[in-house]
Write a structure and sequence with these properties.
Layout lengths: L3 E4 L4 E4 L2 H9 L3 E6 L4 H6 L2 E3 L1 H10 L4 E5 L2 H10 L4 E3 L8 H4 L3 H15 L4 E5 L4 H4 L4 E3 L4 H6 L7 E4 L2 H11 L4 E2 L12 H10 L4 E4 L5 H5 L3 E2 L2 H9 L5 E5 L4 H8 L4 E4 L18 H10 L8 H15 L3
Parallel strand pairs: 3-4, 3-5, 5-6, 7-8, 7-9, 9-10, 11-12, 11-13, 13-14
Antiparallel strand pairs: 1-2
Helix pairs in contact: 3-4, 12-13
Bound molecules: 1,3-dihydroxyacetonephosphate (13P) and iron/sulfur cluster.
Length: 323
């Protein structure tokens, strides 16, 4: 991959090749983590690439003075909550998440109060990890797409559950577990756009192909898929095949990882209804230039308010204890 020039206020820095960036960071006690939705160059720079669950576990267990998180804000906040002594920083502080933004703490607490009045008891609140630390602090337990069923299955039957913020992931858990969780009305702006009509066209064009879609996709897309799985499970599925054609219903950059892990297959990205917009605009804010700049100049540090730390951390640790 080509290196490029980075203009800073005082100088021009050449962005080196990924291996050099990684070594540069290692020598200074900086661990680079990257989500699989980051562009290939950033994945190559990272000491560890993974899904939300794997990255949370890595942030908790890896020794590092600092973590540079190539992902979105809630992921870096999670790393800070799980490794409070490490300084955590990001290439671009504006890399947010539409799903996390759909659930504000003040609205959630109002809704929990409303449900308590209606049900006669406060529901157990399960939060998808794609939410702010303030929302995590109001929840009993966190889940990711990789462990959502296990987390919900760990809650005694009959206990009322409020699931936030993703209605599609929550709907999928309800369908597969027989639960009747109350769902927050949030969605990921990337996965929401996948269309079953364009997926069907692709399936007709590629008979024998295997469709895998992320549980953040709408029900019609999930129902038309052979496998509904998070990104880590997509990788495992690809690795267990050779010579297969996969239709991939998730963020487009995962295909870089799929190709690298299982190059013997063909991967075709599922497009949206009227566009090829399967790249997350928030993840895309992180670039090689911004990574190199923040490694050199610091800044963009993630802080979590002191009063949120303990309750948000407790909800995360309850998830990580479920194996
Ligand atoms: P996973 O990392 O759990 O597959 O989730 C995908 C996602 O949307 C992250 O923002
Ligand atoms: Fe958020 Fe969707 Fe982007 Fe993931 S892909 S960070 S859920 S907007």
């Amino acid at each position: 991959m080509a290196s490029s020039d980075l203009t800073t206020s005082s100088s021009v820095l050449q962005v080196p090749e990924p291996a050099e960036i990684r070594q540069w960071a290692s020598a200074r006690g900086i661990l680079i983590l990257a989500h699989s939705y980051q562009e290939g160059f950033l994945q190559e720079c990272a000491h560890f690439v993974g899904d939300s669950l794997e990255l949370a576990r890595a942030a908790e267990t890896e020794q590092a003075e600092a973590i540079c998180f190539c992902g979105v804000h809630f992921m870096a906040e999670t790393a800070k909550l799980l490794n409070p002594t490490a300084r955590v920083f990001v290439p671009d502080l504006d890399a947010g998440c539409s799903l996390a933004d759909s659930c504000r703490a003040e609205d959630l607490v109002r809704y929990q109060d409303h449900l308590e009045g209606k049900l006669g008891r406060r529901p157990t609140t399960v939060a998808y990890i794609n939410c702010s630390a303030a929302v995590k602090a109001l929840c009993d337990v966190i889940c990711t797409s990789g462990n959502a069923r296990q987390v919900v299955d760990s809650i005694p039957a009959g206990e009322p559950i409020l699931f936030v913020p993703d209605k599609h992931l929550g709907g999928w858990i309800n369908e597969t577990s027989g639960r009747d969780m109350v769902l927050w009305n949030g969605a990921c702006q990337v996965h929401e756009l996948f269309s079953v009509d364009t997926l069907r066209v692709l399936q007709d064009e590629h008979p024998g192909s295997i469709t895998m879609s992320h549980p953040e996709c709408p029900k019609a897309v999930r129902d038309a898929s052979d496998h509904v799985v998070g990104t880590a499970a997509m990788l495992r599925l690809a690795e267990s095949h050779h010579g297969a054609t996969f239709l991939v219903g998730t963020e487009g950059n995962l295909i870089y990882r799929l190709h690298k892990a299982a190059p013997g297959n063909r991967y075709i990205p599922a497009p949206g209804a009227s566009c090829a917009c399967n790249l997350c605009p928030f993840m895309q804010l992180n670039t090689p230039e911004k990574l190199w700049q923040v490694l050199h100049q610091g800044g963009n540090e993630i802080e979590v308010a002191a009063e949120l730390f303990e309750p948000a951390q407790r909800a995360l640790k309850r998830m990580l204890a479920i194996r």
